[in-house]
Structure formats: structure tokens, C-alpha cells
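pasting for the record
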Amino acid sequence: MKALVYTAPNRIALREEPDPVAADGEVVLRIDAVGICGSDMHAYHGHDPRRNPPLIMGHELAGTIVGGPEAGRRVTANPLVHCGTCDYCVQGRNNLCSNRSMIGMNRPGAYAELMAIPQRCLVAIPQDMPVRAAALTEPAATALHAMLLAQRALQRPLPEVCSLVLGGGAIGLLAALLLRSYGSRVTLAETNPLRRASAERHAGCATFDPRERQAEKNGFGLVIDAVGSKTTRSQALAAVRPGGAVLHIGLQDWASEIDMRKLTLDEITLIGTYTYTTADMRATVDALYRGAFGDLDWVEERALGDGAQAFADLDGGRTASAKIVLRPG
């Protein structure tokens, strides 16, 4: 099969790889579409010690089952391979599974024509669901999971809350789209002018360049850090109003200091939010199918063979799209 392989920092190449063989309890999927994630870009730069070359990355997927009694059924998948037996899995919080692994990290991913995955990770989709929408289930579920945590922490419902999203990548834009669908007033901070224009057009939110001006101090009930750098963490704490909440999704930097004095004196709720549960993914499939995230016209599709150029374009900020989806077929 053809696969896009991460071979060294800043190098990714299309090459022939052996077809996957399904182990017990697994199925083989023909990959119909797979998105390029920010975490894949992080690994592409050699900044993720969990993803070591040579590696087939890719975990945002839509595919079709090959072989067996369900051959031909279209699905998406939870790329977090959970054990199903630990306390977190039993509680329905399998994103925190004590024994989890992940496709595209600990095992071959979806930047390929074929991929093997445990059957328990499959997530059903409507069989007429557009492949672009199905491939966005994973990143959209990350945004939905974060919104569920925010709603538990906020004292007022989201339509009454002014929200700030830091970062106009896929997670930031999907979060903004979901917030708008909930009725929240949204402002988005993004350094790339192409992405600011895309967010204004597709999410209908106000935008600004954080290099040119700062967000209003104490101006937002909810702040979402979809970047996760030392700078954006400081910006998030400065922008959140007393009694508000900061959702930390991005993982660009491994560690940094935050304003613990403000966190304490203003009773800020700081929430770390990691991926999604399988229940979140099922809810996201329904939300995408109903159009809660809009028409997805901002998503760009390219052939798998153009994957190396897609990584380079994303790295260089040469595309307005916050998400490039690769099509192996």
C-alpha cells in the first residue's frame, strides 16, 4: 500500500509499505479521508518524543471496513485505543484510560491506503454522511468535549457568556463554530491573516492579531487556549474575568508559569481538557451530520500523494484553511 511516512524531523515521504494485517479483535479499514492535526505538525518538527520516525501518523479519519461480515460499512474511529477495563474506562472516561495507546503514535496511523484498528474503537456514522464531515469527527469531538466541561464550570449559560478563543487552527475554529451554535458571542485571536479572514467568514466572529493588540483585560467569561504556549497561557489568564473559566486545550509548550495570584484572588476555574470520550465522538457525529459546525467549506482536500507539500504549506502559513484533509483514493 501507499503511505505517507514521517522519516525525520521536517521530512515526510510517500512510499510503499506492507499492507496491515488485522489481529484478533481488529478490522482493516480502507482510509477514505484523513486530516492533518496540529499534533502531527508538532511531531513533524521533531518536538514530540512520543512519535518517533519512521512512523505512519494520522488519526483523524473516515474509512470503510475491508473484509468480514461488515465489509463495506463506512465508519470513523476513536484513535485512542483504550483497554475497556480500568477504572476510567468503566466510568465512561476512556480518554483517561490508564493503559491507552493511540494510532498514529504508538501504532501505524491513517496516512495510508489501509489501516488496522481494534473493532471496539469504531464509531458508527450515517452511511450517507459526507466523507469530509466524517473525517472531522475527531477534532470536532475535542471541541465538543471542552464545551461540556465549560458548561459545568460556568455560573451562567453559554448564550450569556462572552468567549475568547486563542488560536485559529482547526480546534480553535471548531470551538468558535460550536460556541456560535450555542449562542455565545465569540472573539478569536490568530496571528495568520488568512485564518483570521476564514474565521470571520465561516464562524462569523470578531478577530484580531494578538501581536498587535491584547484582548480586553478581564473581558471574557470563557477563554479557550487552543495553542498552549507560554504566551497564550498568560494571555488567557489576563483576559478571563473574575469567576470565569479558562479551558486549556493546546499543547505547544510543555511547561510555563501562570498567574497563580489572579487564579486564586479572582476564583478562576482552570480546566485541562484532553481529547474526548467515545460518547463525545458519537454526539459529535450527530452534530456534524445536523450541521452544527456549519457547512465545512473552509476545509481543504488534497490527495495523499500531495501530503508532503500539505505539511510544508501548513508549516509556512501558506493556506487559509485550518484543516487539510488528505484523500488516499
